What does this fold into?
Amino acid sequence: MFRKISLALLAGASCLAVNPAAAIEANEPTVVYADPMPQRPTRIASAERSVMGGGFIEFLFNEGPPRAQRYQQQPSYEPQRALLPPMDPQQSMRQQDDAIEPAHAAFDPRFEKQMVDYSGREGAGTIVVDTPNKFLFLVQGGGKAMRYGIGVGRPGFTWSGIKTISAKKEWPAWTPPPEMLARRPDLPRHMEGGPQNPLGARAMYLGSSLYRIHGSNEPWTIGTNVSSGCIRMRNEDVIDLYGRVNVGAKVVVL
It folds into this structure.
């Protein structure tokens, strides 16, 4: 039998050679242990790695993230697309505004302010309101007049006559008369002047009546029968007319 040499192995020797002479004297065969071939590190099977506790320790021994993390399916990007802001915020806002605000007809160019010929008998400085054709003329003299497009009374609310401008106001306040509130109880009892006020940027009051020549925050209504008897104009047009006429000017409504 060969003599066991486990003590040398336990001492950490990488190799052991038995002296041949000593082996001959002891009448034993010579046994030589050569350096073993280097071996690749043995990976621990997944069942054995469970004793490492996973996490960072398993990462060190396994040269990568834990198996459960390596093979975990990543969350999909598609469900998150609904949370992203629109690519064009301005376009999105315009679409929302279009959905809220009703569409209105474009302003008819026939009602743009323009200088025209005038062959009537009224003198310069007189305002002539052509109700049927929805035009207001400011007579200039010399056969000319400045013409503006207007909105006039609805059926049953038109009128005719001669008035004078009794007052002028910029950005006037509005207090609906009792007759109007009886027809429209939803209207405000009073509204201060401003861009949202239905009297618009300027108002010229006609005598002691409730009628006015005034601006409007609804320019698409110019050229239509829309009011309760007032003569409405676009804000830019009523500002222009306001600067051309004085209190006491004659107004002829046809």
In short: The mean pLDDT is 74. The longest strand covers residues 161-170. The chain has two domains: 16-70, 112-253.
